[in-house]
Amino acid sequence: MSKMRTIRKKLFISYTNLIVGVIVAFAVLIFVYISQILSNQTRDMMTSLLTAGINQTDMEVRRMDTVSLNICYSEIVKGNFEKLMQKTSKIYASDERARAIIDALVAINGPLMPVQQINIYSLGGQVLSTGFSNKSIETNLASKHWYEPTLKLDGKKYITVLKDGKESYIYDTTERIKQYIVLDRVIFNKYGQQLAILEVISKSNQIFKSIYEIEDDYKGSIMAYVFDESGQMIYPVSNEESAALSYQTFSQNKEAGKDGYFKTKLGEDNYNVYYHQSSYTGWTLVLARSQKSIIAPVITLALFMMLITSIFIGVALLSSFIIAKDLSNPIKELLMTIKNTRLKNLDDVGDNKINTQLIELEELHTAFSNMRINIKESTVAMLEAQRQELKARMLALQSQMNPHFLYNTLTNISVMAEEGLNDGIVEMCDHVSFLLRYFSTSKPVLVKMSEEFECAKKYLSIVQIRYKDYLKYTIEMDEALQNIEIPRNIVQPLIENAVKYGMNEEMIWDIKIEGYFREDGWRIKISDKGNGFLKEKIQELQEKIDQINLFKRYIDLEINGMGFINVFSRLKLTYEENMYFEFGNDPRGGAVIIIGVQHYIKL
């Protein structure tokens, strides 16, 4: 990616992005707002279509029901049918009473023919049929799926769907797809006894005429479905497996209640699905409208808004270019002043004025002039801080190699000389010389961990020469840690603390130094078998650590008691938040200090 070369370009792009962002955000808000309005309007429209569709369907079924009830109350039909059954056990359509019944049925159905087929079944299985054809047939009522449910309803209507017209003796060759709505109920004689079963049949396309019209008006965007109470799809006239919406999908998504709405994917498109259940028939009308058809007007609007937005963006580009130019020129003057600033002329503020009418840029120029003065003062303070740092290093050296330690070491050398232990004297002098060189070197602050452990070993060797078998120590380090660079002299001060306070009740020191890896970095652990930290000492040290962490201010280094906090401070300066520092008492006895680095990165 190319780097911005000028302030003017940066300002130009910034203003442009801001203006374009506002325009685009406004366009998005308008888009979302109008989309919501269209969604609400679509929902209201779909609710109206559902109500109209289910009401029209109920009205067609009511017409069937009205014809059925008129037949049940017709004394001509009931009287003639009862006498016909008393006269003979088999019905013939040519019989005078049968013709009278058929004439009455045709008259009740009327010229508009709300039903296309009427069948009257005697309880013995004789059938008198009129509609597509007039005939009398004998059948096995017990084999009819609607027989038992109709008897149990005791005169109330029982509605079913008929896929094969031949089952109800319909021979209609005018329709390519044959599906019929069947309404059955029991006919009673004047004594209230079950006389026969009446069956009225209408074509499915007549019952669902209004639903056909809805789909026709919204071609391709709305799909309609009708499920009966058992979950059978009765519209469209097809197998449920081939329909886009199955009853299983519908039942899994629908909410409790007769009305509702949900979203689902049908085929490759997303659809909003609305449904309403009729309290009269128990059928559920489902209308699924594709989301593409809903947002089509919004897309048209979006294209129009994109054109208008492009015009506004063009005007915005020109405006932002002019503004950027007016801002960049005085900034260039200020930049030249900054470039000509040197350490030797920090005090030469002068009365320079930049050529601008903008208060903010004049204040910026004044602030820069004041900053030059502050930099001068800060430089002086920095030099003083460097002097303090040198002093701190000297204090650290004095703390680690204090006169008391040197005095004891020289005394030991003198005693060994009297006893003629020349090899021991040579070894101790060698160790002391090594420590003096290691502490006082001017080489980089960071050293290899192997060097730091060697320093610790030399120090413990000197102490062991003095205390002999009263001091036991172990030093272990993973080989992979040898070349890891760490701050110089962070292990020896902690070992010195262990020597000073780590004696146990048996007057023996048992000190262990370990270097090892963890998943997040390295660790150095110093432990002893002494009496551990006093509770008051832990609290005192923790307060100093909290003060450093809270105020980012390092405790003044002093000769006495400096080692522990000195190590913490130098780790904090070196590794900042990645440092690891833990101290306390081991439940098995003794003090433990663990230092290290988390999320290790080679410095």
How would you sum up this structure, described in words?
The protein is α+β, with helices and mostly antiparallel strands. Helices cover 51% and strands 19% of the residues. It has helices spanning 7-73, 75-87, 96-109, 147-153, 204-207, 209-217, 247-253, 291-339, 359-400, 403-418, 422-440, 449-467, 492-501, 535-551, 563-575, and strands spanning 117-122, 126-130, 135-138, 158-162, 180-188, 194-203, 222-227, 233-235, 259-266, 269-277, 284-290, 446-448, 471-477, 485-487, 509-518, 521-528, 579-585, 591-597. The strands form four sheets. Strands 3-2-1-6-5-4 form a six-stranded antiparallel β-sheet, sandwiched between helices. Strands 8-7-11-10-9 form a five-stranded antiparallel β-sheet. It has a five-stranded mixed β-sheet with strand order 13-15-16-18-17, with helices on one face. A hairpin with a 5-residue loop joins strand 7 (222-227) and strand 8. It is elongated, with a radius of gyration of 51 Å. The chain starts with 6 loop residues before the first helix and ends in a 6-residue tail after the last strand. The relative contact order is 0.06. Residues 397-401 and 557-561 have low confidence and may be disordered.
In DSSP terms (H or I, runs of 4 or more residues), the helix count works out at: 15
Question: What's the overall average pLDDT, rounded?
Answer: 80
C-alpha-based Rg, rounded: 51 Å
Number of strands: 18
As a percent range, the share of strand residues is 15-25%
Strand order of the largest sheet: 3-2-1-6-5-4
How many angstroms does the end-to-end distance come to?
A: 29 Å
How would you characterize the largest beta sheet?
A: 6 strands, antiparallel
Secondary structure: helix percent:
40-55%
Overall geometric form: elongated
The low-confidence parts are 397-401, 557-561
SS content category: alpha+beta
